[in-house]
Amino acid sequence: MPGLGTADVLVLASASPRRLDLLRQIGIVPDQILPADLDETPLKRELPGPHAKRLAQAKAEAIRPRAPDAFILAADTVVGCGRRILPKAETDAELRQCLELLSGRRHRVHGGVCLIAPDGTMRQRLVQSSVIFKHLTPGEIDAYVASGEGRGKAGGYAIQGRAAALIRAIEGSYSNIVGLPLFETSQLLGGAGYRW
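Above: the chain sequence. Below: its structure as tokens.
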């Protein structure tokens, strides 16, 4: 990456537009976006938190050979209901199943963040936020599924969109629920010497 000082080069190992928007919100603009293409299937008996942390690390490690002199930032967001890992809902049926499971319940959003510095040092964080959905009526579920907003989203919803009207309360980091815990991410970057 000619012309850029090593200490200033940041690669985001994610194709998520939400993560990019969140970084820009705090004045961080990655120099490159290099999504990692990984199998995100949970391991047998893997819990939601460790799953998020493992995937974030695997994404960062997968991209490092392509940008060895850069800071590599990777993240993964996992919605867990108890010990169960909810999918990134791709179909209406999956979306409906997620919403029916989350209706009237508290669940956790696990955000794994991994940063590999140019010297190879790895730093990680696992951030957990709690979300409580209201009891959803069949009509509310139908309307949300029909909106298509939850497609491709962990747990089948986007808190920054229409789902905000369905959520009674949250505890913890809001940005973590959207897709990247900004406080912890900025602390990781600053601690590693990244300047922005």
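Strands lie at 10-12, 32-33, 71-81, 84-85, 106-116, 122-133, 167-171.
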